[in-house]
Amino acid sequence: MFYLSLIEHSLLLPPHYLALPINEAIKGELENLFLDKVIEDLGLCISVYDIISIDGGFVVAGEGAPTYMVVFRLIMFRPFVGEVISAKLKESDTNGLRLTLGFFDDIYIPVDALPKPSHHEPDPEHKGQIVWIWEHEGGTYPVEWTDEIRFRVVSVKYPQIPVEQSNDTKPFAPMVITGSLNADGLGPLAWWV
Question: Is the bond leading into 142 cis (omega within 30 degrees of zero)?
Fold first, then answer.
């Protein structure tokens, strides 16, 4: 789920960082550039782990700031296909479930990946939302808002950035995880305790 990724980057260090020690200044600018950003095929950047080397410091004509070649490692979030992860419910609608890890919200469980048979009912406590209910051996098992939900990762995708986006669409998600609850031990923990 979490990886260290080795990155080499040509970094233009803004002048306001020049009063700081070089390692601290470069780490601050790397955090500004990479934290909470998705890098395609690497995942979501969580933190700058360490700086391995700093070379350069040359001021290019017309720039007014030094440029460094920096080799560093980032802590990245990128789950692998088949991994089982625990999350919380963020949204529930006729298309399925949307889950959150707290720091990442673009996890979707489509209707066909819910346990079979399942149906939905309007949620009296959350206007505009629904409750998905699994029917198993004569019992009903709802997906509650407070439940910790285990899901299996089916895919991790990095969609293309849209050229235009209408006002009524959801915000663009640079990394989308699709999961499944359709196996023993998956779903709300309350189902299995």
Answer: no
Write 129-136 long-range contacts (CB < 8 A, 24+).
Answer: 129/91, 129/92, 129/93, 130/92, 130/93, 130/94, 131/92, 132/92, 132/96, 132/97, 134/187, 134/191
Which stretch of DSSP H or E encloses residue 22? helix 22-34
Query: Cα 136 vs. chain centroid, distance in angstroms?
Result: 32
Q: What is the pLDDT of residue 156?
A: 94
Q: Are 66 and 59 in contact (CB under 8 A)?
A: yes
Side by side, the strands of the sheet bearing 118-122 are 118-122, 130-136, 139-142
How distant, in Å, are the alpha carbons of 8, 42, 111 from that of 183? Answer: 41, 28, 14
Burial degree of 49 (CB within 10 A; 0-12, 13-18, 19+): middle
Q: Does residue 165 register a pLDDT over 70?
A: no
| Helix, strand and coil in the chain, % to nearest 5 | 10, 50, 40
- Write out the two tokens for 20: 């700081």
1-35: per-residue pLDDT in tens?
A: 899 999 999 999 988 888 899 999 999 999 999 99
**Distance between CA atoms of residues 68 and 58, nearest Å:** 7
pTM: 0.85
d(CA 115, CA 184): 9
**Amino acid sitting at position 123:** D
Query: Could you read off the pLDDT of 115-138 as tens digits, one per residue?
Result: 999 988 888 887 778 899 998 888
